[in-house]
Amino acid sequence: MPASDQHKLYIKNKDQRKLVRDCVAGSEAIKTARRTDSTEQGGIYNSMGSQYLPVPNPDDDSIENQERYAAYRMRATFINFTGYTKQGLMGMVARKPTEIDLDPSIKYAELNVNGSGLTLQGLTQSVIGNLLEAGQDGLLVDFPMSTGGTQQQTAGLRAIIKQYPAESIINWRVETIDSIDTVVMVALAEEVTRVAADGFSVDDVTYTRVLCLNEDGDYIQKLYNEHDELMFNQEGESDMLIKKADGSNWKEILFVAVGSENNDLTPDKSPLYDVAEINIGHYHNSADFEESSFLVGQPTPVFSGLNEGWAKNVMKGGIQIGSRAGVLLPENGSAMLLQANENQMPSAGMDRKEEQLVKIGAKIISDKGGVETAEASRIKFAGQNSKLGLVIINTELAFDQCFEWMMGFQGGTGENVFNINKQFYEATVDPQLLIANMQLLDRQVIAKTDVRRMMRKGGLIEHDRTDEDIDGEVEAVSPVV
Which of 9, 275, 433, 462 makes a 20 to 30 Å CA pair with 117? Predict the structure, then answer.
């Protein structure tokens, strides 16, 4: 089996992920995607845009039919409800910055977590975005290879976190070892830009990085090129043995799969998949509505009572319609405008899908002539928020694991604080509850920090004001004499 072989669950979920990714990308991605489900049928069947807007008459490969489909696709309107929904959910998370306080040994990761200048806050947002779109993301803790010595002896080298989207996690294997399900192999696809011998030309190729446990139970990495050929380093070795700060070998694979439902390697459903499906259905209705409007939307003049001589002599140059023109008719002749009744079905289908989008949590507010209360908005989006909350919890757990591994490289032993915002709406503090907490504080049942935590959640204290800042300001105020 080649290293680039794909897991059956990876293949099964590939089309669903692509659907959501394309919807979030917008109209251009939707209107240029081609069908790939048939190699027998070519021609117009596989024309640009046919993946999400099927060709009405795929058996007709004539130029006329191709031009008609191109116009059919062009008139259709794709409104990016999926992208708007993602932006709304991401905005809810970003209402407050992530609370981060890392062990001194990995403090550098707050400003440069991947070795290329990406902040930890930025990586967090990227992971959440990928989970919303694809339902899965991956984080690999890695350490730059050195020429020798223990990791602690190689000054200047730092552990980093590499991000792998769901599309890169192509294969995996889990085995039961000592009654525990253990990940023994993960294959990751990596896009590599290779410079040619002339120093100018470049090729984009896909390598496969295999993370596995060897026969001794040690964690190693292997790298395969685009031809599935095992690659060797300058010393002629293919197995990259990963060591801790004390020089010992790792006994686990330092890769964590983050999921929208749970943090295992089984792909989870994208929280935005249902939105994307309805979004495509809305796009279909739009195409049919615009096509119908184009074909029969314009009024057509109809004349009756004309003889052949009148049509050839009087009306041979055509006619003009409007208040500044007159139409000459023979005796007993008549004229009228023929116009089809409005086709309500595609339009009604679009309206219904917009209502469905609201029900499943899309950020589309129906205009009912009034302003929704905050409580009504909370209830409407409760289902979507629960999915978002689970995404955040899984992201926190994944990063906590990564921080532990990073400290294993850097020799740290402390604790880390990493709390992503879960307060998606403005919270209010019940005055009676506040008074009750103050009474509990006076009776020394709770601490001052407990009261301030509640006040921060309610917006009465700015989230970035620490207890030390507040105590210092209070002490600086002169007492009233």
Answer: 462
Token reading at 395: 């992201």
Provide the CA 318 distance to its chain's centre, in angstroms.
56
Q: Which residue has the higher pLDDT, 475 or 111?
A: 111
Q: Which of 266, 188, 252 is nearest to 222 (CA)?
A: 188
State both tokens at 419: 């709390």
CA distances from 428 to 360, 446, 460 (A): 26, 21, 9
Give 213's strand partners: 219
Question: CA-based diameter of the chain, in Å?
Answer: 113
CA atoms within 13 A on the CB side of 239: 11
Q: Which helix (H) or strand (E) holds 19?
A: helix 8-25
User: What is the C-alpha to C-alpha distance for residues 361 and 472, in angstroms, rounded to an integer?
Assistant: 44
Listed in sequence order, the residues at least 6 apart from 467 whose beta carbon sits closer than 8 Å to its beta carbon are 448, 449, 452
In contact, 48 and 282? CB cutoff 8 Å: no
Provide the 3-class DSSP secondary structure of residue 139: strand
By C-alpha distance, which of 460, 454, 458, 412 is closest to 437?
Answer: 454
Which of 416, 436, 414, 426 is CA-nearest to residue 457? 426
Cβ-based neighbours of 430, under 8 Å, separated by 6 or more: none
Tokens matching residue 351: 């309206």
Helix or strand holding residue 310 (H, E)? helix 308-313
Distance CA(212)–CA(217), nearest Å, equals 9
Round to whole Å and give the CA distance between 272 and 171.
Answer: 24
Report the relative pairing of strands 180-195 and 202-213 from DSSP bridges: antiparallel
- DSSP string computed for 153-220: GSTT---EEEEEEGGGEEEEEEEEETTEEEEEEEEEEEEEEEE-TTSS-EEEEEEEEEEEE-TTS-EE
Which of 298, 270, 474 has its CA nearest to residue 465? 474
**Residue 228 CA: distances (Å) to CA of 173, 190, 263, 274, 319:** 18, 13, 29, 37, 72
Do the Cβ atoms of 214 and 220 come closer than 8 Å?
Answer: yes
Decide: pTM greater than 0.70.
Answer: yes
pLDDT digits (tens, 9 = 90+) for 441-469: 777 878 888 888 777 776 677 767 778 88
Report which of residues 424 and 11 the model is more confident about.
11
For the stretch 32-52, pLDDT in tens is 998 876 555 657 778 888 899
Pairing of strands 180-195, 136-142: unpaired
Q: Which residues contact 185 (CB under 8 A, 6 or more apart)?
A: 171, 172, 173, 210, 211, 212, 213, 253
CB atoms within 10 A of CB 207: 18
* Cα dihedral 228, 229, 234, 240 in deg (nearest 10): 50
